[in-house]
Amino acid sequence: MTKNASNHTKPLKIPKIIILSSKVISFLSYKWAAIYASRLFVTPIKHKIPKREMEMYEKSFQQMIVVPAINRKVNIYEYGKNDTSKKVLLVHGWSGRGTQLCKIAREIVNLGYQTVSFDAPAHGKSPGNSTVMIDFIASILEIDKQFGPFEIVIGHSLGGMSVMNAIKEGLKTNKAIIIGSGDVVQDITDDFVAKLGLKSIISKLLCERFERKYGVKMDDYSVYKAAGLTLIPTLVIHDKDDPEVPVKAGINIHHHLKNGELMLTEKLGHRKILADHQVIEKIINFIKK
Fold first, then answer.
1. Does residue 153 contact residue 177 with C-beta atoms inside 8 Å?
2. Distance of alpha carbon 273 from its chain centroid, rounded?
3. pTM over 0.90
4. What is the assigned CATH class of domain 51-184+222-288?
5. 59 Cβ contact list (under 8 Å, min separation 6)
6. What does the buried/exposed string (b/e) look like for 187-214 if buried means 16 or more CB atoms within 10 Å of the residue's CB?
7. Where are the chain's structural domains?
8. Model confidence pLDDT, tens digit, residues 109-162
9. Contact present, 137 and 168 (Cβ < 8 Å)
10. pLDDT digit string, tens, across residues 228-263
């Protein structure tokens, strides 16, 4: 493995000061630790748009829309806009932005499609400091109302989870593609709490806190459940060396699909996979079928 490839398969590190703070608070009170962890869990990091995404950013028609269901605003990107072309919806992951799938978008536009993407609440140019998957799902459903229908829907990471849950909640599309998607919500909170160096009981308290706040069961948003309910052709792409979302997530989602395909890659990690030539080729061929 080259040094460059290795960098892409290392998990993003949580700052030591946050880990230390979490441990101190946990020592004082598990309840306080769960509150602190919940705030960290819903707060994405806004990154500067990298140079590779500037072409899509500059050539997109952008506008801010309101998502009434959650009373939040999201910034929309219409790329390759053409009144006669079919549309593809792109959904970024946690701490991403609407231009993150730029290389995939470029090849889709070259096929004659138009792409629509967005900065999820508290991401990119969309206002706010915190968000959850429910906000992603509500945004997808509202964008479908205003800009759809979409022939294909593509999601990365949390975006993949949101796409499958949006389909479960009524989003109509011909095909779905999910890349590096998480699966079981409890696994995600367990992993997050472990990275903070906290005991597993904090993960349980974290889930209970979210369930009380939003009036939902966290496990209802586990992707394998949505996968088992959809009949549309769905392509699952996951890297064996993904350090942020274990490959077992993609394998389990595919196992529950009635009409699914699975592509497993190596040494691409969680983000480099979005720009890999073979991955993009697989996506284009899947769309063409």
1. yes
2. 13
3. yes
4. alpha beta
5. 79
6. bbbbbbbebbebeeebbbbbbebbeeee
7. 1-41+187-218, 51-184+222-288
8. 999 999 999 999 999 999 999 999 999 999 999 999 999 999 999 999 999 999
9. no
10. 999 999 999 999 999 999 999 999 999 999 999 999
